[in-house]
Specification:
With 136 residues, the protein is mainly β. It has no helices and 7 strands. A 5-stranded antiparallel β-sheet has the order 5-4-3-6-7, with no helix packed on it. It is elongated and about 60 Å long.
């Protein structure tokens, strides 16, 4: 495109249409909270090199089916897409990581507490703390 200036000279216009630049990242993290009604999920994710430090944040999900079968505590991988004005995740996949904080439901085991649960107002039991130098 050329523009006429002062009736005699012409100047080439260097105006190019702006298109949103899209960045795509593969990310791993742990689901903290699910909010399918708001189309969001809160994930504690690893560092995204060159883009973002590791942190816990909410992500928009365009298709809530991406969240089906997930629970808080699940380790997941997902694709994060970011444009100049928008960001969302998709391709959410749960990793097959066994949960170590649950008790087995079958087999021979016996659950024994180190300390019985306390009620409000109960005195704390005698306990000795040890620091990293093994000093009490």
């Amino acid at each position: 495109m050329q523009k006429k200036i002062s009736g005699t000279a012409t100047l080439a216009s260097s105006v190019a249409p702006t298109q949103p630049t899209q960045q795509v990242f593969q990310v791993k993290g742990a689901v903290m909270e699910l909010h399918p009604e708001e189309k969001t999920v809160r994930i504690k994710h690893e560092e995204i090199p060159g883009y973002m430090k590791a942190m816990t944040m909410s992500f928009d999900v365009r298709d809530t089916n991406e969240l089906a079968g997930l629970e808080a505590g699940d380790t997941v991988t997902f694709r994060m897409t970011v444009t100049h004005t928008d960001g969302w995740i998709d391709q959410v996949k749960r990793l097959n990581v066994s949960r170590t904080n649950t008790l087995p439901t079958t087999g021979q085991f016996r659950f024994v507490r180190d300390v019985e649960p306390l009620n409000i107002g109960d005195p704390l039991p005698e306990y000795h703390f040890t620091n990293h130098l093994a000093n009490r």
